[in-house]
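Demo today. Your pick:
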Amino acid sequence: MASWFYASEGKQQGPFPDGQFRDLIAQGVVRPDTLVWTEGMAGWQKAAEIPGLVGGGAPPMIPAGGPPMMGGGGYGGAAGGSLTADFSAFGLLGRSIVFVIGILLVIPAPWVTVWFYKYITSHIQVPGRPNFGFAGQPMDIWWALMANALLTYAGATGISFAPLLAVIANAFLAWVILRWIVANLTSNGERLPLSFQGSAIGYVGWYLLMMISTITIIGWAWVIAFWMRWNCRNIEGTRREVAFNGSGWQILWRSVVFSLACSLLIPIPWMLRWYGRWFVSQFALVDRGAAARAY
C-alpha cells in the first residue's frame, strides 16, 4: 500500500496510508496546490498534477534522478536540511544498557548490535528519506562484531593484550562495521545506494589520533569533529552530501555537562537523550561541495 507525504509550512508531514491521505484531501487539508510525494515519484509535485489524486491534469514530466531532499530551504533546493531524532529518555537508556551487556557477553553481540541499530535509525528523521531504517542482519559480519565485542570485554575485565595491536585491531573492526552500517541504511524498506569509501588506513589513523589526543585533556573533542567530517566526506552514492556541522567546542562543553550530570545518576536518561538528539542534529544533507566550501 502506498504511503504519502505532503508539505505544510515548509515541513514534511507523513507518511500517511493511501486511504488516510485521501481523507486529508477530502477534508481540504491537502489542497490541489499542496506539494506531495510518494515512493516512485522523482520529486515533489502539486497534488493537482498527479492524475487521479485530486482532479484532472496532464501527467507530469518526470526528471531523471531520485526524489529531492526536503529541508528548511525548500523542496529540491540547495539546502537539504539537518537530521533530527525523537529518542525517548528511557527507551534510549534501556536499549543502551542491553547493548552494552550484550557486547560484554560477546556471543550475543551480532544480535544486540542489529537490534540496537534498528532502534536508532527508526528514530532518526532524514530529509527526503521517509521511514529511515537499517537492514543489516546479525550474520552479515558476525566475525567483526564478535571480535570487536571480545576486545571490548578484554578491556573491561583488564585482560592484557599488546596495547597498540589491540587498538589497531579495534580501529580496523570499527571501520568494517561502519562500512556495513552505511551499506545497510534504508528508506521505505529499500536500501539506499550508499557506501563508505574511506580507507582502512585513514580510519585507523584517525582512531589513533583520537586516542593520543586524550593526553591534551580537551583536544580529543576537535579530533572527533574533524574525524566526523572525514567520515561524512567519504560517504558516496547519493546526489547530496552528508556534512557534520558540530565544532570541537560544542562537543567539549556538552560532553563535560553530560559527564557531570550523569555523575548524579538520576539525570542519566534525560542527558543521554539530550546529547544523542544534539549529536544527530549536527549531521545534514547538503549539495555536494557545499560542506568543503563551509570549512
Observations:
- The chain has ten helices and 16 strands.
